[in-house]
Amino acid sequence: MLEILYRDEFLVAINKPSGLLVHRSPIDRYETEFAVQILRDQIGQFVYPVHRLDKPTSGVLLFALDKESASLLGEQFMSRESKKSYIAIVRGYIQERGIIEHALTVKLDKIADKDSSVPIEAQEATTEYERLATVELDFAVGKYDKTRYSLVKLHPMTGRKHQLRRHMKHISHHILGDTKYGRGEHNIFIREQFDCHRMLLHASELQIRHPHTNEILVIQASLDDTFESMCKLFN
């Protein structure tokens, strides 16, 4: 059963769990459960995803309940009218606030995108961040005697594939638990020491304009037990 955050006759938003695919993908052909399928069966209606979250990312995921609403919402995401906020735990002490402007090349999946034609040039990508808290642990990970982490709020101003994960890697503040762009020694550390087996990136808030009423909707999603536990352990 998926947690429903918002629902009316046009829209429904859920708190997607980490590890759940949005829809069927040839990349994970052995997966049998998808957010689209589960939500459709749960509410008894067809649903149309209007944006994406990576499989390991949790948080606000919005669907339309008809094609017209899906198209109108899609235009908002394409024009960057929607606003997204994420929470992450990253390695090191990140600066209190900043803007990352680092162009990203298009990432293709060998299977899913094998027939795609995309621009070779890197695309502009901008992320704002704000540090919320820090912790220093008496554990040696890698070459350091102590380990430092930061709790950070992230605001992607563009919507490139894996943008937040790649931008955090670019400034050497990798997201914990990220097996693609993160640091293996830190991922192993949180698994073995804290039994944390997920990437610590969560889509905490989505702000959109309702496609039919023009009302501004602010949809928020709480952290799951694992992420909440890590925040408490890190005080």
Write up what this structure looks like:
By secondary structure, the protein is an alpha+beta fold. The protein has helices spanning 35-43, 67-78, 163-170, 184-194, 225-233; strands at residues 3-7, 11-16, 48-49, 58-64, 83-91, 97-101, 126-137, 147-156, 201-209, 216-220. The longest helix has 12 residues, at 67-78. The two termini are 30 Å apart.
Poorly predicted regions: 110-114
Distance between the ends: 30 Å
| SSE sequence, one letter per element | EEHEEHEEEEHHEEH
Strand count: 10
Main pleated sheet: 10 strands, mixed
Task: Write a concise keyword list for the protein shown above.
235 residues, alpha+beta, 5 helices
Write the layout of secondary structure elements.
Blueprint: E1 3-7, E2 11-16, H1 35-43, E3 48-49, E4 58-64, H2 67-78, E5 83-91, E6 97-101, E7 126-137, E8 147-156, H3 163-170, H4 184-194, E9 201-209, E10 216-220, H5 225-233
Parallel strand pairs: 4-9
Antiparallel strand pairs: 1-2, 2-4, 3-4, 5-8, 5-9, 6-7, 7-8, 9-10
